[in-house]
Input
Amino acid sequence: MAVRRNTRQSFKAAAKQIERLSTKLRKKTISGLRVIGEEIMLDVKASRPGRGVPVDKGTLRSSGRVEGPKHNEVELSFGSASAPYALEQHERVDLRHTVGEARYLVRGLDRWQANGASVKRALADLNRAVEEVARRRSR
Output
C-alpha cells in the first residue's frame, strides 16, 4: 500500500516537473521565433547590390516589420500606406535594382542560418556600406 502511494506521488511530482519544463520550453521556443524573425529582417534590410530589399529612397525598407509571436508564428512583412508597391517589388523578377533584389523576403528566408552566420554577414555588409557612404561624403 505504501509503495503504491509513493509511486503515485512520484508520478505526480514527475508530471508537475514535466509540465514546468514544457512551459519553459514553449516560452523559449516562442522567443526564439522572434529572434529568428528579427535576424531575417536584419539581413533583408541590410540592402546591398543583388541582396535585400530594393532601396531608392528607403521608404520600402523602413516599412519592414516583424510581428508576433502570436499562435507560435512570427510574421515578417513589408509595405504600408507610404509603400503600397511592396508586393510588386517583391514579385516582379523582371525589375532590375541597383541595390536589392526581387523576392527579397523569400531570399532572406533562404539565406538564414541557425548559427547566426547570416546575421554576421549582413552586419559586415552593412558596415561596409556605411563606410563606403562615409568615404563618398568625405571627398
